[in-house]
Amino acid sequence: DHRDLHRVDRRQRQMCIRDRYCIANSNFQFHKSGKIFLAIFLLKKSLYINIRLEIVFMALPKLGYPTFELELPSTGKTIKYRPFLVKEEKVLLMALESKDEKQVVSAVKDLIKNCVTTRIKVDTLPSFDLEYLFLKIRGASIGETITLTVTCQDDNETQVEANININEVEIFKPEGHDKKVMFDDKTGLVMRYPSMKEFVDREFLQKEMKTEDVYGFIADSIDQIFDDEEVYDSSTTTKKEFRTFVDSLTTRQFEKIQKFYETAPKLSHTFKVVNPKTGKESSYTIEGLQSFFA
Questions:
Q1: β-sheet bridge partners, residue 281
Q2: Residue 224 · residue 189 · CB < 8 Å
Q3: What tens digit of pLDDT does each residue of 18-55 get?
Q4: What is the tens place of the pLDDT at every residue in 71-118?
Q5: What's the angle, vertex CA 288, arms to CA 285 and CA 293, rounded to 5?
Q6: Sign (positive/negative) of CA torsion 127, 129, 132, 137?
Q7: Contacts (Cβ under 8 Å, ≥6 apart) of 294
Q8: What are the backbone angles phi and psi of residue 187, rounded to the nearest 5°?
Q9: Is residue 11 within 8 Å of residue 50, measured between CB atoms?
């Protein structure tokens, strides 16, 4: 009878021989804490064993993800990036649905920051770097092929699907483009490319600038004003002074600043399709991030 067995302290010897055959029941209470339990088993041939058991609960497997490399168009610096995760895409989609500007800016910024594994200042990247980077991250996350539907140019009615390989899309840099805008031999300014906020406003919020906003935007994009004697930048000049300077420009001088934006690097891709009805080929050029998701 097992009832005549006395309790053996843990400090006593772990094995003792009994004269009889006996079995002891053991009750276990399992916890997620992985707690160490003490179990006493009475085995055949009267072998009495004191055993320590550790209950281990296995965690779900963590999936790895690939990393990719690209060169930033503005500097040629090589950076590494990964696909965005479902939770990151979800945050961005929810922000876009809310149409709240702060949420969208924050979501786009966080997504890019999280996906870029190289240490860089995302906030200061030019908008064309951000376009290029976001397109490549999107390709790594969802798929490298984008399908667009275009209308054939020879009959203006036949629609054809075109498959665009994201890996073939690059930043187009027009010849002669320069951040320095000269008004005469001595006076000019150095422009700053639009960055994160302007990128989000244009590509995600699709905001259209009013006339007054355009002049303010240009004034905010001035990095330096210089002549043959002095250089004026944000450390010595207020935004109001930059705005006053822009308002004092002649139309011809202002057009030179507009040319800076017109010739700025941009996401661009040229492709061709054949009209299945006529056999004639049409060529198309798409520019800007939104064009690739039309």
A1: 274
A2: yes
A3: 444 444 444 444 444 444 444 444 444 444 444 444 44
A4: 999 999 999 999 999 999 999 999 989 888 889 889 999 999 999 999
A5: 85
A6: negative
A7: 148, 286
A8: -110, 140
A9: no
